[in-house]
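## tool: complex_structure
## caller: assistant
## args:
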Amino acid sequence: MILSDAVVKRMPAYYRHLRELEKEGVRQISSRELGRRMDLTPSQIRQDIHSFGGCGRQGCGYPVTSLREHIGRVLGLGGRRRMTIVGAGNIGRAMARSASFAQNGFETVSIFDRDAAKIGRDVNGTPVQDVAELERLMQEEPAEIAVLAVPAANAQALAERLYACGVRGFWNFAPADLRLPEDAAVENVHLDESLEVLSFRLSQRARAAAEKE
Amino acid sequence: MILSDAVVKRMPAYYRHLRELEKEGVRQISSRELGRRMDLTPSQIRQDIHSFGGCGRQGCGYPVTSLREHIGRVLGLGGRRRMTIVGAGNIGRAMARSASFAQNGFETVSIFDRDAAKIGRDVNGTPVQDVAELERLMQEEPAEIAVLAVPAANAQALAERLYACGVRGFWNFAPADLRLPEDAAVENVHLDESLEVLSFRLSQRARAAAEKE
DNA sequence: TAGATTGTTAATCGATTAACAATC
DNA sequence: TAGATTGTTAATCGATTAACAATC
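## result:
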């Protein structure tokens, strides 16, 4: 099964919409109806579901629950994933406190920072530890995923140290592009860039409106 | 100037890399060198820059500073943008405290929540106000952008209220798809989905490794 | 002038949409 | 059986890459 990047990025949206449909008590849904809800063409829905190995019944549509379960398995959800949070600033603390990740099986096992003022403080039941001791503490409490919530200048060096500690999943909030070995998975959340895109779209609308006059 | 969605999403990355080059004291950069840094082909760099109206000099490359300034103007940066934060939970508070947005001209003018326990509290110098009074308070203190950091179930209704208050830019952190009039600009930050994509990539690697054995 | 590198057109590649036979 | 809807192939569309003439 080879999944294109475009399809992978849409999978979580399928998962979310199917969960909502389940809550509403919907048992089966056609590509037409699902397309209407998700703002995709029925054709794309069928291509996507087919490509990630889901299947429906001609004449009836797709079974909501089993399709949701299937996508969950493909996404690797359902198990537990141990996560360390590096950087106890605004973002790091917000991620540590988020209930929704924990509900999905992503559990925070440790939090690190370099700031002496933050070390020892408690964030949502987990103490902030000294990042200088990262290597030693990661041996005691290993993690699969690291949430990188540190200044851009430190991101690359920390990512390399975390990689050496066995971390292979990097959820990167720093405005920096990480260079890591091929077997590392990096998912970027570039908040500044996202806000800049919004700024662009607002300006674009303003320009279009000005032109009309 | 018509910019494809793909190009728009890359613009902030150009902006960031050019700012870094500026700091390093680089005056001119060729598409080849910039491509190496940004992990894009030189061909794409030239297409992109041309498409958003930047230009270079044959034989010399692109002028770093003026190109950065040009992209900043296209993105609509440089001015001030008034932002209201709706939802004073983990995400909302983290966004209110973020220094980097403020540095880019995005200023938080108000924060709203419905929780009586939060109303009146101070977040980074701004008091949390009662969302029940949104309409009245938004008249006193209008905003161009709303940061939607509320539960998914409330996102749509709040977005509509904010739209009625004149907000046209929506930075949506709720795991919901907003349906708004065409002249609204919506930029989604779906953290759950991003983490699920990371989970998928980790599972994929695990599956590939298992197959090899 | 010669070398380097852009601007821009053409070719390729991949993703989306359309179409329709298969089948529930 | 007839109607509905999938699975899947073919057509289209858009984005990326290659090529090369223009020019600094």
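## assistant note: Chain A touches chain B through 54 residues (CB under 8 Å). Chain A is about 50% helix and 15% strand. Handing back to user.
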